[in-house]
UniProtKB/TrEMBL annotation, chains A, B:
Residues 18-267 form the Orotidine 5'-phosphate decarboxylase domain. It comes from the Bacteria. Keywords: Decarboxylase, Lyase, Pyrimidine biosynthesis. InterPro entries: Aldolase_TIM (IPR013785), OMPdecase_AS (IPR018089), OMPdecase_type-2 (IPR011995), OMPdeCOase_dom (IPR001754), RibuloseP-bd_barrel (IPR011060). Gene3D superfamilies: Aldolase class I (3.20.20.70). This is Orotidine 5'-phosphate decarboxylase. The gene is pyrF. The keyword Lyase applies.
């Protein structure tokens, strides 16, 4: 039987703690790492982070845009990074924020979630402007193959507040709607007490009350950007996420990557430890 | 001085009419066209549509997901299709629905809108779940380079209704918010009477009243899927879009592509004519 992504994520957290290491070869970081602004530079950057994260963190999260900017050569670089990460046993969350409908969405899901496809990852992030229901093909493919989908629910950037806090006639916000609709998918597919394949993206610095999000029992992992450079500390996780804290994957990018190639193992080790210690303070 | 995408789009509509030919090499169509389910099949499909559209339609719209499913090889195929379409003088709208924040969004914009980049298109579609303001880097790059961005506003798929009709404290819906915020960007950059670089995606079968969208004076093109196979007819454009009808780009995919490789020139010719005739009935 296929083990669900949720169960694989939970096993990863149990073993290494909740740290997720971003792989963001953006122009400034390539410069800092003395790598060229090219697909080859992005590949070297990604492979180095994958090597440093292996055995130290449960998750890596390549940011697809920084590969896409180099076109097909960038995607070839990303394929190498994804394959090496998966071979090393680290779970790979492709941060692609894809979102479409029908057969178009199915093709995105096929790209990222089909076992054996060139861009195979363990999970992909998805954007629900066209509705959570429009992502159903991705959920089905994920469920069948032990893969995951993280749906954007509430993000901490100020530009998103107006949209995500808009509400329906029952005063349910867009952010809460996404959580409700994605939770319903998990409820239909997951045994009691297990984690499902459909997770959420909720920024660590989101104001839950203002965003109209009610605390919920986690039935899937929550991918939480905003740790490290953006201000949230692992020790804050319990305060921020309450009973959901054990389901939180703490994503850090710049706070780790700015250490540079020489010090990255040490920094991942330290940040993974402090993310784990949050767990022990539960 | 760089000619804006809006002005280029208007010139295209004036010359060929408002038809946009989708390039959707999905599995079923590749079968119908007797092409392999591979990057090479998608490339042949795309090049054939580009050849048939040249001199007959102002716009083609490759659906990125159907190339992405083949990974880097699929993107190499898409690069060929984009380059051939641009060389033929047809305006290319890459239907990618990308959406992110900050430097991540900038990298997507760089991928699709930078002159000389491997995936260079004339315009790209964008998804605003993270807020229209989060797309500002793409708007700036578009404005500088004569490129366009079509922001998803209101789509006709049923799954998106709950989110897009959610409203803020002033009863302004998400769909209307997107239109307002993107219109403000155009207003800041465009001379009176000209079309700007930031267009909208509004499905031809959207219920405007129920979606809380107020008619607006078009200051940029509106990309309208839903013509052809999905039910809207060009003759309906005036009724559906009212005073905005002259700004509408009518996108058709399956209704043209299902003609097959042999008949596609004829069908594009016919559909372009009936789209133009709608214009003459204004």
């Amino acid at each position: 039987m296929t083990v669900s992504f949720g169960q694989r994520a939970r096993a990863g957290i149990d073993r290494f703690g909740p740290l997720c290491v971003g792989i963001d070869p953006h122009p400034g970081l390539l410069d800092e790492w003395a790598l060229p602004q090219s697909a080859a530079g992005a590949r070297e950057f990604g492979l180095r982070v994958v090597e440093a994260a292996a055995g130290r963190a449960a998750f890596v999260k390549p940011q697809v845009s920084f590969f896409e900017r180099y076109g097909s050569a960038g995607f070839a670089a990303l394929e190498r990074v994804l394959a090496e990460a998966r071979a090393s046993g680290t779970l790979v969350i492709a941060d692609a924020k894809r979102g479409d409908i029908g057969s178009t969405m199915d093709a995105y899901a096929a790209a990222w979630l089909t076992p054996g496809s060139p861009l195979e990852a363990d999970a992909v992030t998805a954007s629900p402007y066209l509705g959570v229901g429009a992502l159903s093909g991705a959920f089905e493919l994920a469920h069948r193959g032990g893969k995951g989908v993280f749906v954007l629910a509430a993000t901490s950037n100020p530009e998103g507040i107006g949209l995500q806090r808009s509400a329906d006639a029952d005063a349910r916000t867009v952010a809460q709607r996404v959580i409700d609709e994605a939770s319903a998918v998990n409820a239909a597919c997951v045994a009691d007490g297990e984690w499902g394949s459909v997770g959420f993206v909720i920024g660590a610095t989101v104001d839950w009350h203002a965003s109209g999000i009610r605390p919920f029992t986690p039935v899937a992992p929550i991918l939480a950007p905003g740790f490290g450079y953006q201000g949230a500390r692992p020790a804050d996780a319990r305060r921020i996420f309450g009973a959901m804290a054990p389901a939180v994957i703490m994503s850090e990018s710049r706070s780790i990557l700015s250490a540079g190639s020489d010090r990255i193992e040490t920094v991942i080790e330290e940040h993974a430890r402090s993310a784990r210690e949050q767990d022990h303070h539960e």
